[in-house]
Amino acid sequence: MFTRGCKRLRKINITIKKLLDLLHIKHWHLVTAFLMIYDIIAVNAGYFLALWFRFDCRVSNIQEMYLTRFIKFAPIYTLFSIGVFLFFKLYNSIWRFASYRELVHVFFSSVVTSVFQTVFITLLFARMPISYYVFGALFQFAFVLAIRFSYRLVLLLRETRKPISNDHNNVMIVGAGSAGTMILRDINSTDKINGEKVVCIVDDNSNKWGRSIDGVPIVGGRESIFYNVKKYGVDKIYISIPSATAQERRDILSICNETGCEIKSLPGVYQLLRGDVSASNLKKVTVEDLLGRDPINIQNENTFGYIKGNTVLVTGGGGSIGSELCRQIAAHNPKKLLILDIYENNAYDIQQELKHNFPELDLDVLIGSVRDSRRLDNVFSKYHPDIVYHAAAHKHVPLMEDSPCESIKNNVVGTYKTAYAAVKYGCKRFILISTDKAVNPTNIMGASKRLCEMVIQSFSKLLTEDRSFEIYPLYEHYDEFFDENKVGLKATVKTEFVAVRFGNVLGSNGSVVPKFKKQIEAGGPVTVTHPDIIRYFMTIPEAVSLVLEAGAYAKGGEIFVLDMGDPVKIVDLARNLIRLSGYVPDVDIKIEYSGLRPGEKLYEEKLMDSEGLERTANDLIHVCKPVDFDPKKLIKDVSNLMDVCYNEDEKIREYVEKIVPTYHPVNN
Fold it and tell me: Helix or strand or coil: residue 144?
């Protein structure tokens, strides 16, 4: 019998659902109709109940004149109340998610209707007892509110009665502010099955200690993280302090990273301002988050205004820096973007990416070497670029120590030839990508980049002094090099030459981070050259932001330097990467020291002794004071140096040392 009854009910439900679909009636339409019927009863029941209480809870005791006035005014009051409720959208909310906003709407709608009841029943009929006005308003508010929050209350009670399961991850939230509260409620919301439970909250504000949010205790400040991770068996730490400074975030992340817990963090304060804060917005902490420096994000019209409407050439456009330059340039409406690279695979990858992301972009990807004068002449004569970002270079220190002549050919000669073509064909700006390894170099790669800086400063000085005729071409495919009797360039445009000097780039080709990650994936060991070696680090987008800013500030001949914050010990970087990968350094993954490589220094410098710093409009970007040298002599030296490197002379370092006085090669 019971089974038959269930089947009949199921058939009835299916029939009703089909009928509703046929009539285009949705479920929420039925809910709205039910709420309206309920409200019609509630608004009248509230005031009748007040009248009933006034006369000792007996209907027979209610004076007839009061009962008559109530009955006559009821239809008018009912219509007005439903209209007010519609105005305040009390029938539009999904009440299982009812919150403060819905409470406010119910409150104000009750105030408006109660004032209407008080004024108009008195004016149209006569005064009612004081208790009728007061308690009627209270009863009505309670009835209207109760039905709307009852569903959420039932769900909450049902959740609290569920047996506690041990099959979940215990979560600690760092930050008891608005963002932390939103994440807490998002994790604990009944509509999500996330296998997580917030067990404690940490906040540096001591006024919050010993108190709780939604029953979750605030157990102390950052110094108590270790203790409470063990006390509460924490598996995950969610950091929700979007307004904290970069240094504060690094300090907290460093503490959390030592616990061995999975760490996630809310990216930024903008999400809090948008109200877009939830557990799904949290991202895994990366090694970039541990740099302890506010990120450099250049997003103003002065920076990108000079790109718009111009033809831009990026040499080495398929590399780490070059490809990011292409992405950011493409986003700011250049007239045309040219990518020149010798390695076709990288060039193809960035070509396909830009075509997909910027279908309207006028893009040409060209294969060629900056060492090839004829190829450069062909590119510049055909396209006449307005701006050149020269990112093409050999950058790997140990490899260049083994092939020093290639470092000079590609970096120095390639820069000279590209700069020469830029002047010859009227390029407006030329931005060289340099490195902090150019400062007091001990390796041939750093010395070659210092020579590149000297080349573009020489070009800039000669152009400023109207001596472009002293800039001569270099052709390694002819049996002729420097000739003082030869007539050089006749510049039509005074190209503005600048260089941008920065430290190591996280995640770039050849950087330690990808190397460490591969070693960790292989089970170790992670190899560090020296326990005391330190480096300045920045992210690829930050490096590119600096390069773009330098282009905006360019006047000619400057070397821009980024304030990269504090240097980072490479061994600390390795340990952080191991922890972020879920392992314990020196236990799960060993760290071994391999010794300094040829030409490698323990630390990098941002300035030479003879250089000073001048401020720019950006406090994090500075300009080096130029070092004085004879540009004409440098051009002659570079021409002779090209002869030396193309003859594969093993004494190449000695020749470079004579030209670059700060270069002191060492054998580690």
Answer: helix
Cα gap 5→105, rounded to integer Å: 43
For residue 270, give every residue at least 6 positions away whose Cβ sits within 8 Å of its Cβ, in sequence order, or none: 242
d(CA 547, CA 482): 32
Q: From CA 339, how far away is CA 351, in angstroms rounded? A: 8
DSSP strand pairing (336-341 vs 363-367): parallel
- 235-269 per-position pLDDT tens digit: 888 888 877 776 777 778 878 877 878 888 765 43
At position 503, the amino acid (one-letter code) is: G
DSSP β-bridge partners for residue 275: none
- Of the candidates 456, 453, 577, 460, which has an alpha carbon nearest to the alpha carbon of residue 516? 577
Mean pLDDT of 548-552: 76
CB 489 within 8 A of CB 469: yes
What gap in Å lies between CA 560 and CA 611, rounded to an integer? 12
Please tell me the distance from the alpha carbon of residue 71 to that of residue 130, in angstroms, as a whole number.
18
Helix (H) or strand (E) holding 11: helix 2-22
Write the CATH number of the domain with boundaries 301-505+537-564+608-659.
3.40.50.720
The dihedral over CA atoms of 577, 580, 584, 588, expressed in degrees to the nearest 10, equals -70
CA proximity to 432, closest of 448, 536, 443 = 448
3-state secondary structure string across 535-573: ECEEEHHHHHHHHHHHHHHCCCCCEEEECCCCCEEHHHH
Distance, CA of 108 to CA of 419 (rounded, Å): 71
**Which strands form 429-435's sheet, in the order they lie side by side?**
363-367, 336-341, 311-315, 387-390, 429-435, 496-502, 559-562, 621-624, 613-615
Contact 648, 405 (CB under 8 A): yes
Structure tokens at 357: 């992301």
Give the span between the Cα atoms of 371 and 633, in whole angstroms: 22
Distance CA 473, CA 470 (A): 10
Show the tokens assigned to 368.
């060629």
User: C-alpha angle with apex 24: 19 to 27, nearest 5 degrees?
Assistant: 80
Residue where the block lists tokens 């093409």: 392
**To which residue do tokens 């830009």 refer?**
354
Beta bridge partners of 311: 336
Tokens of 518: 């591969």
Beta bridge partners of 169: 196
Rounded Cα–Cα distance for residues 427 and 386 (Å)? 5
- Check if 437 is active-site: yes
What tens digit of pLDDT does each residue of 125-135 get? 888 999 999 99
- Over residues 361-408, the pLDDT tens digits come to 999 999 999 999 999 999 999 999 999 999 999 988 889 999 999 999
CA 570 to chain centre: 24
Do residues 559 and 623 lie in contact, with contact meaning Cβ atoms separated by under 8 Å? yes
Domain with CATH 3.40.50.720 in the chain: 169-285, 301-505+537-564+608-659
- Of 396, 450, 419, the closest CA to residue 313 belongs to 419
466-475 contact pairs (CB < 8 A, 24+): 467/632, 468/423, 470/631, 470/632, 470/635, 471/420, 471/423, 471/635, 472/635, 472/639, 473/373, 473/417, 473/420, 474/373, 474/413, 474/416, 474/417, 474/420, 474/638, 474/639, 474/642, 475/373
DSSP annotation of 278 reads S
The amino acid occupying position 366 is L
Question: CA-to-CA distance for 3 and 310, rounded, in angstroms?
Answer: 78
CATH number of 169-285: 3.40.50.720
Catalytic position from the list 208, 424, 437, 606: 437
